[in-house]
Amino acid sequence: MLAILWITLAIVETGDSNDATTTAVGPFGTIPAPVCGQIQLMMDNCFHNTTPRVVADMLYTVKIPENADDIASRCLLFNRGMDCVQHYLDNCVDQKDRKIVENEVYGARKLYEFLCRDKSFQREFLRHKTCFHHVHPDWDRCSKDFVNIMKEEMAKTNEKTYNVQYMHFCCARYGYEECVFKAAQYKCKPESAVFLQRIARLLSTDKHFQNCDRIEQQICSSGRRLPTTGTGLLIVLMVVVLAGLPLTNLEHR
């Protein structure tokens, strides 16, 4: 739970652990002053003395919401966690690296905007909860494969042009979404498979990848072979881990 928050923080440069920081006040009470470089400590301290009380036990569990109360609890936890992460970023991370993290949590933020504020989306989510349970192991596998591909592509940044590598990233995202969709097609009703594909697309949406749709339609879905030569540099980092849903078991990078 909330692995997306500390994985994204772990990939950026953090300040010295002795840097002076301050507390802040958020919607759930005082946000403790972070110790720069101590991300785990920041997350552990985040959920103490919150109002209303945020049940931090869910932080380390993988549990699909079963009802509106479960969704409300997840939303409290996610929003409180994001408040603490933002406070950490403001105090310990420079502007450039803050932007990286903000880009990476974009998809999770969008999903939780729907899940926490849109009652019709909540009802639809709960209507398909059984499918989430059935597809959980497959989704976890799809996520691990996606992250492994992204890691491999990142290791090749000096071997390809920007455009070629961007196509590879887009097609990796397309493959992840199709992996989830096909697993859901096999185990669930057609409408549930479509909804899970929608969730996968939300989660894999990074601000860097806003222009992937055309590439996915013209190249990735057609099975055309991509060129693999060229030079250039692309630093694009993707996280597809959702707080509390069935893709939280990825290894930390």
From TrEMBL:
PANTHER family: IP09356P, RE45066P-RELATED. Residues 1-17 form the signal peptide. The chain crosses the membrane at residues 230-250. Keywords: Membrane, Signal, Transmembrane, Transmembrane helix. This is (northern house mosquito) hypothetical protein.
